[in-house]
């Protein structure tokens, strides 16, 4: 069956792909069609992909250079469930496959994913595509929602656009966690929360289209008083995540969802805390920083 893409939902930034088995190496024409699909849509959904970790890695690598996931959560090196440093373990499972206790600080930290964000906006070179694969799911809840930051930008009035255009924000996972009341960071962990700079408006490297670059990790605007900056970022986020710009994905085991962090935000939705949710992310590295700064 040849590959085809069907638009899902009313807002045209989510595509569902059929006719591809991603567990096998793909011909370059299919790889090119997937990149084009990402430029046309921003989020692509593939069903029934029964990946092993190696196959997910191989598919991701066939699209471009991988990001290393170290420093994405509070798991220490000896505490990893997944062997490869290229996997972001987005699950609620410890090294032995047991569901985190509710008061586990690794779980509390992971809840940060429930805030709208763009992956690795806290890194000097933020992420390009994220590829999240579902291995085991809770009985209910746990959708992932997406928001189209290009359509949101297009909807802003000229005055808002003129205000945003020159601004540079500081992003750190510390800011997103503090918003949820999580302050439990040890002195040894502190260095990796050093804020990085991101432009508030970014131009997509392949489509040339602008989008508003928001993320819960954004906590300051350079040159602005903090409360004014936070209030402005909250207003922008509220405007950009109105229903007309969003899509909610209900997972099935074997789904692979790929999103372009350069154009979208996403967030996790809650699910029963005592049930396993095993979802594994591989990530493609972005091409360049969005703002000038010292190297990491
Ligand atoms: C991620 C993420 C959301 C979810 O993998 O980067 O934010 O629903 N996931 O697990
Ligand atoms: Mn994420």
Describe this structure in words.
The protein has 296 residues and is α+β, with helices and mostly antiparallel strands. It has one domain: 4-Layer Sandwich (Double-stranded beta-helix). It has seven helices and 15 strands. The protein has helices at 28-40, 53-61, 105-110, 149-155, 158-164, 173-179, 226-240; strands spanning 4-8, 14-18, 43-46, 88-89, 127-136, 144-148, 168-171, 196-199, 201-203, 210-212, 218-221, 246-249, 256-260, 264-268, 278-285. The strands form four sheets. Strands 1-2-3-13-5-15-4 form a seven-stranded mixed sheet, covered by helices on one side. Helix 1 (28-40) links the parallel strand 2 (14-18) and strand 3. The longest helix has 15 residues, at 226-240. The radius of gyration is 18 Å and the shape is globular. The protein starts with a strand and ends in an 11-residue tail after the last strand. Manganese (II) ion binds next to loops.
Secondary structure layout plus pairing:
Elements: E1 4-8, E2 14-18, H1 28-40, E3 43-46, H2 53-61, E4 88-89, H3 105-110, E5 127-136, E6 144-148, H4 149-155, H5 158-164, E7 168-171, H6 173-179, E8 196-199, E9 201-203, E10 210-212, E11 218-221, H7 226-240, E12 246-249, E13 256-260, E14 264-268, E15 278-285
The structure holds N-oxalylglycine and manganese (II) ion.
